[in-house]
Amino acid sequence: MAFVDRLDALPIVLEVVPPHRRAGEKTIASLVQKVQDAASSVPHLDALNIPEVLDENHAGLPFYRNLGPRQFARRLRDGFSAEAIVNKVVVHAKGEGDLRAWLEESIEVDGLRTFVLVGGASSRIAYPGPDVVRANGILREVARGRRDVAAGNITIPERAGEVGRLVEKTRAGARFFTSQVLFEPEPISSVLREYGEACASAGVRPATVLLSFAPVADYEDIEFLAWLGATMTPETEEALLAHRGREVGRASFDVARRIWARIRDANAGSRHPVPLGVNVEEISVHNFDLAVRMAREFPSWKDAKAA
Question: Quick one: which of 89, 135, 283, 288 has the fewest CB in 10 Å?
Answer without folding.
Answer: 288
